[in-house]
Design a protein that fits this description.
The chain is α/β, with parallel strands linked by helices. Helix content is about 30%, strand content about 25%. The strands form two sheets. The protein has a ten-stranded mixed beta sheet with strand order 10-11-9-8-7-12-6-13-15-14, with helices on both faces. A five-stranded mixed beta sheet has the order 2-1-3-4-5, sandwiched between helices. Strand 14 and strand 15 form a beta hairpin. Helix 3 runs parallel beside helix 4 (about 110-120). The longest helix has 14 residues, at about 1-15. The model has no long low-confidence stretch (mean pLDDT about 95).
């Protein structure tokens, strides 16, 4: 029970960096001596110290470390990257015990970190709150195990099932939900729209209502119909333009050639190659329906304004599933769906 309590604290610490650690996972760490937390930390950003090192650095009296237990939500790394392996640091300092939430399925770790620590004669326990620790890094695990990003479908519809009014943009979400949407953008790695949405709405696809990092913008624009002076081409974020015309990089804009045939598989392969770990599909009906029909999604978020009747326009995608949970924000209802078979 005590182990679960400290791993739960590791998860809380890790969540503070959501949206900022790509391509690295979210990790939290806690150091406990005689039932008292003497150090804690999380991984803030790729290239910076890992959670275990930040926790170690926060310990005031380092002499207590050999008598302490270090808790970590994800198996300590065993390879040299931008930072040295955490497993070697734990071994060097001679912790009494190590408690791990979830094992790391990344091929550079995958049990190697645990083995280094065990071989040093340190007691290791793993699988504490494993389900919760895997959920924390659902993006990271999906990316490495399925070789594609974690996919979130999202759209807003009126009470009578339209995405717009007479095929022109219409305000559907209220101020509270708009804030939720911008937090979602800040939390995820990338956001994707199709040609129609980019041309009709001229969106910037950036984070504005909350603090956070702008997602990588992805536009499916086979024939490069989106005008070059549109917001999607500004310098606010890295942007990937998938098209059939050209392949080059101009500042933050990456033009990537892609075939229409077997498009979704080509797209997944390209996003994996570009290390995109999660993506919100915010495109119009056609783009969203492609992902729905292929069963290629992990979460779906549907915002509905029941009191709003638009009468005519683009129909919302066909989607018939029971929501996992529902949240109400004044006159807006958000339904959350999970695709465990994806």
């Amino acid at each position: 029970m005590e182990d679960q309590l400290y791993i739960k604290r590791c998860i809380e610490l890790a969540q503070k960096a959501l949206g900022r650690t790509y391509p690295n996972p979210l990790v939290g760490s806690v150091i406990v001596h005689n039932g008292k937390i003497i150090g804690e930390g999380c991984h803030h950003k790729a290239g910076e110290n890992h959670a275990e090192i930040n926790a170690i650095n926060s310990v005031k009296n380092k002499e207590l470390i050999p008598e302490s237990t270090i808790y970590v939500s994800l198996e300590p790394c065993a390879h040299y990257g931008k930072t040295p392996p955490c497993a070697l640091k734990i071994k060097e300092l001679g912790f009494k015990k190590v408690v791990i939430g979830a094992m790391d399925s990344h091929d550079k770790v995958d049990g190697k970190g645990k083995k280094i620590i065990q071989d040093a004669g340190i007691e290791v326990i793993s699988g504490i709150l494993e389900k919760e620790c895997i959920e924390l890094n659902k993006r990271f695990f999906t990316f490495h195990e399925k070789k594609r990003p974690y996919i979130i479908l999202k759209w807003a519809a009126s009470g009578d099932g339209f995405l717009d009014k007479d095929f022109k943009p219409a305000s559907i979400s209220n101020a509270l939900v708009n804030q939720f949407v911008h937090q979602l953008r800040a939390d995820e790695h990338a956001i994707l729209v199709g040609t129609q949405t980019a041309v009709t709405d001229n969106p910037s696809l950036t984070v504005r209502k909350v603090e956070g990092v702008n997602p990588v913008r992805i536009v499916i624009d086979f024939d490069l119909k989106v005008p070059a002076d549109y917001k999607i081409y500004n310098s606010e974020s890295k942007t990937l333009i998938f098209n059939r015309v050209k392949e080059n990089i101009i500042n933050n804009i990456h033009f990537i050639k892609i075939e229409k045939e077997n498009f979704l598989q080509h797209l997944m392969d390209a996003l994996y190659k570009h290390q995109i770990q999660s993506v919100i599909i915010e495109g119009g009906r056609f783009t969203l329906q492609q992902f729905i029909d292929a069963g290629l999604w992990d979460e779906t978020i549907i915002i509905k304004n029941e009191n709003l009747k638009l009468e005519n326009g683009t129909k919302a995608p066909e989607f018939v599933l029971k929501p996992k949970k529902i949240k109400t924000y004044r006159d807006n209802v958000i339904s959350f769906y999970s695709n465990i078979n994806s």
